[in-house]
Amino acid sequence: MAEVDKDKLYQFLLRMGDNTLILGHRVSEWCGHSPVLEEDIALANTALDLIGQTQMWLGYAGEVQGEGKSADDLAFLRDAWDFRNVLLVELPNGDFGRTMMRQFLYDAWSSIMLGHLQKSTDERIAAIAAKASKEAAYHVERSSGTVVGLGDGTEESHNRMQAALDYLWPYVGEMFASDEIDLAMAAAGIAPDPANLRDEYDALVGRVLDEATLAIPAGNYVHKGGRDGRMHTEHLGHLLCEMQWLQRAYPGCEW
Amino acid sequence: MKNEWPLWEVFIRGQHGLAHRHVGSLHAPDAETAILNARDVYTRRNEGVSIWVVEAKHIAASSPSEKGPLFEPSESKIYRHPTFFDIPEEVGHM
Amino acid sequence: MYAQMVKTASNRVKTREEMSPEEQHFQDKIDNDVKIEPKDWMPEDYRRTLIRQIGQHAHSEVVGQLPEGNWITRAPTLERKAILLAKVQDEAGHGLYLYSAAETLGVSRDELIELLHEGKMKYSSIFNYPTLNWADIGAVGWLVDGAAIINQVALQRTSYGPYSRAMIRICKEESFHARQGYSAIMKMAFGTPEQKKMAQDAVNRLWFPALMMFGPSDKDSVHSEQSMAWKIKVKTNDELRQQFVDQTVPQIDYLGLERPDPTIKWNEERGHYDFAMPDWDEFFNVIKGNGPCNADRMENRRKAWEDGAWVREGLLEHARKKAARKVAAE
């Protein structure tokens, strides 16, 4: 493995782990409230996979940081400005259609990203990606099927899915916006430059949305600010209030 | 009931080499989704390596009144069961 | 239990002479522990009683997701969140297995769900109590699932094949629930003074509602007598409750918590603990809809169902279109 700046590697790992942490949290909010039992169970499986991935990414992030912090410390004791997830995953669930569209747009990226990360020069990252990519492959199969089914379903389901896509699409670009951290990872062979994944992503997403009879909205504005922590949405603070409350109110306990 | 998803019967091969076994049922709009749902519902604890689903209405079953004629004849053919035959211990396991 | 006070249509159990030949044959099978299967002949009242009982049991699993689900987003560690989520997911799975068992009796899952939403079917009283602090999650797993397991282990021997098989599958998964609950509450009871306070508060609030789960004494109930003759109920409510108290009191003591009922005392002569009965007026009020959470629980379930209607219809319509396209292509 080529020499790489520890802090940049730490930032990269936070990006991976915060994506799965926040999205896993959002998906877990559905438990007990889904449209049908089979979906409730499936969504819980997705959330469980994402929580498991979080433990691996943030666990490694804590080691790289070298201050003795555990995955739990990083998840429950950082404030919003320290989070490095893309904005897409912190957006509220909305209706089931928006949740599944968000899931698909994330899964498509994640399945491609993890595929490349299996070839990482960092063995730990390659090992995490090997495990996570099997899960991601299933997630994208499931979420793309639901997007197609609802997009090409009734008039109402089609309209709701189109509205979900219109709302979420401006958040997609952030997953591919490279910065100096990404370039350092790419130079060291640790991770691909996300900008280079865009064609593969567009091909996959285009094929599924086409089958779903949904149209990618015009306009190419991209909301950003999550991956570098410059500016999250208002929603993240509320999510953290809930998620971190016990750890904050009763510091130092074992649970 | 209007717009209720069809009922599917789920069969799972627990390990390589074993036959598929009926494990339960679930609802799904189509066969592809039924297989995905079966994976999520019935293999949460690594119970399976292969899944079959069949829409419940397509299963033809023997009716209880036929139970006599269908099953009783085989009960008398006890020679089909290995324990029917006394094999001397000296010849070893068979 | 998860199915409380299920009524049969009879006002007394028939004598053998009063039974038709097919009913005699049916009762003989039950007496000989031969399972009744979906296509076998069965008395109409047996079928209806089972639909009520299994349906109520299924509803309890699904409504039971709510009080615990209330803490998924506030779980204090990633591991606790994963364990709790997996546990609540299991409840959904158990609901699904039970609805499937009920469906073999000629009623559909959606019909049962609508009966619940119309208030024509019930679910266990316990899920109308709130979960107010994190230790409640431990206490629910330990006490509520602990009480449920006692009943469900007995029901593995129930006479109706699909119900019995669902119970066997459920019991395998349930032992994880009680154990994770006790492990969570151990952390609390042996933790900081605040954590111990949460644990004590949880046990104090949930003890009597847990005892209510077994239902009022049914030693003189004709419905229970009939259900026991049919082996869809295997032990009396009082027997099961006593078994629960006997197994749980030493577990409370081990945690170093105060017993939630000061009258609990070992009775050497009986070989059991004596204990106080819950307030049955409160129980009947909860059953009638006046529990602390009845209205919220039902509103949540109805909302999930109604908000999900477009999803169920959309996916079904897609399946129809796909099938039609396939036919057209052939």
Automatic annotation (TrEMBL), chain A:
Coiled-coil region list: none
Single GO cellular component term: cytosol
SUPFAM superfamilies: Ferritin-like
InterPro entries: Aromatic_CoA_ox/epox, Ferritin-like, Ferritin-like_SF, PaaA_PaaC, PaaC
Protein name: Ring-1,2-phenylacetyl-CoA epoxidase subunit PaaC
Family matches, as PANTHER family: 1,2-PHENYLACETYL-COA EPOXIDASE, SUBUNIT C, PHENYLACETIC ACID DEGRADATION PROTEIN PAA
Pfam families in the cross-refs: PaaA_PaaC
GO annotation, biological process: phenylacetate catabolic process
Domain of life the protein comes from: Bacteria
TrEMBL record, chain B:
Pfam families listed in its UniProt record: PaaB (PF06243)
InterPro entries to which the protein is assigned, alphabetical: PaaB, PaaB_sf
Domain of life: Bacteria
This protein's name: Ring-1,2-phenylacetyl-CoA epoxidase subunit PaaB
Automatic annotation (TrEMBL), chain C:
Span list, region Disordered: 1-25
Compositional bias (Basic and acidic residues): 14-25
PANTHER family: 1,2-PHENYLACETYL-COA EPOXIDASE, SUBUNIT A (PTHR30458:SF2), PHENYLACETIC ACID DEGRADATION PROTEIN PAA (PTHR30458)
Gene Ontology, cellular component aspect: cytosol
A GO BP entry: phenylacetate catabolic process
Pfam families xref list: PaaA_PaaC
Gene Ontology molecular function: phenylacetyl-CoA 1,2-epoxidase activity
Protein name per its UniProtKB record: Ring-1,2-phenylacetyl-CoA epoxidase subunit PaaA
Top-level taxonomic group: Bacteria
Organism: Jhaorihella thermophila
InterPro entries xrefs: Aromatic_CoA_ox/epox, Ferritin-like, Ferritin-like_SF, PaaA, PaaA_PaaC
